[in-house]
Write a structure and sequence with these properties.
It is a single chain. The chain has one helix at residues 3-177. By secondary structure, it is mainly alpha-helical. The longest helix is centred in the middle third of the chain and has 175 residues, at 3-177. The N and C termini lie far apart (195 Å). 0% of the residues are buried.
Length: 178
């Protein structure tokens, strides 16, 4: 290898190493940024840990409250048991009242059935009376029609008689004058 080639090789390798060094510097900068970000994440995790400690404290307080509530529920359960006994007695009373109401209802329905039968008979009688009145009205209307016809015929007969009377009077006058 000649010195010129050697120099070219050195120059080439220098450029390559410079480029590699520049890349390492970039990677180093990125790693520094990553370190800063990880430090921020550590800070946030520390804050979250403090929050978890506060939450744990609150949960402990809530556990104490739940213990008090459990005690109250025990007392409430006893009261509900007493109320259940009272409600059972009331239920038995209502059962007796329901039976009395059912008997009364049956009796009332029987009375209503009898009233409806009476209404049905009255309705039938009413319909019979209405039909009779319609027949009477029809007969009266028919009678009025006949009377009107007779009155017209009578009026016409009176005109004919008057006409005949006037002719007879004319004939009588002619005979008397002749």
């Amino acid at each position: 290898m000649t010195s010129n080639e050697y120099e070219q090789l050195v120059e080439f390798l220098t450029r390559q190493f410079t480029e590699i060094d520049r890349r390492f510097t970039g990677v180093d900068g990125r790693l520094d940024q990553l370190d800063r970000r990880l430090d921020q994440v550590d800070g946030r995790l520390d804050e979250m840990d403090a929050h978890f400690v506060a939450v744990d404290t609150r949960f402990d307080q809530m556990d104490a409250r739940f213990a008090v509530v459990d005690t109250r529920f025990g007392a409430g359960d006893r009261q509900f048991a007493e109320i259940a006994g009272v409600l059972a007695r009331i239920d038995r009373r209502f059962t007796g009242i329901e039976e009395q109401i059912a008997d009364l209802r049956r009796e009332m329905l029987e009375h209503f059935d009898e009233i409806y039968r009476c209404f049905e008979r009255l309705e039938q009688e009413y319909q019979a009376v209405v039909q009779g009145l319609r027949r009477v009205e029809a007969a009266l209307a028919d009678e009025r029609g006949r009377r009107e016809i007779i009155e017209r015929d009578l009026a016409e007969l009176k005109r004919h008689v008057a006409f005949l009377q006037s002719r007879i009077d004319d004939i009588q006058q002619r005979l008397d004058s002749a």
